[in-house]
Specification:
Rossmann fold, alpha/beta, 139 residues, 4 helices, globular, 6 strands
Length: 139
């Protein structure tokens, strides 16, 4: 059984809902899952899990949230080489550039990125998000 962690940051609750649906899908796929808000996640998670799902909405000019999420991600980025990573998040405007930039950044760190960065406009579709999580459990 794979051990997975879902780490997310949410402002409006949309990315939190997405994270909970991804968690549900991972469990349906047979993974043992821990769900953490960014403020409760520490850099040592890299040594504790097999699968890493990171969720952050688009902020400002299509960037990752800058006060909590980006500093956390930066703290683990150098340890992602060879790790299985899924990226997800919600947005209200733009075209997903923040996710494309984040995916490239994660791939440059050497992570094995699952599918493409998964985005949902505003309120996420729980079934679609759970299906993403279930597929990730088999990655």
């Amino acid at each position: 059984m794979s051990k997975a962690v879902v780490v997310y940051w949410s402002s409006t609750g949309n990315t939190e809902a997405m994270a909970k649906a991804v968690e549900k899908g991972l469990k349906e796929g047979g993974a043992e899952v821990t769900l953490l808000e960014t403020g409760k996640a520490k850099a040592d998670i890299i040594d504790q899990y097999d699968l890493f799902a990171f969720g952050c909405p688009a902020m400002g000019d299509e960037v990752l949230e800058e006060d909590e999420f980006d500093p956390f991600f930066t703290s683990i980025e150098g340890k992602l080489s060879g790790k299985k990573v899924a990226l997800f998040g919600t947005y209200d405007w733009g075209d997903g550039q923040w996710m494309r930039d984040w995916q490239k950044r994660t791939e440059t760190a050497g992570a094995k990125v699952f599918e493409e960065g998964f985005i949902q406009h505003l309120e996420p579709d729980e079934a679609v998000c759970a299906a993403f999580g279930k597929r990730f459990a088999a990655f």
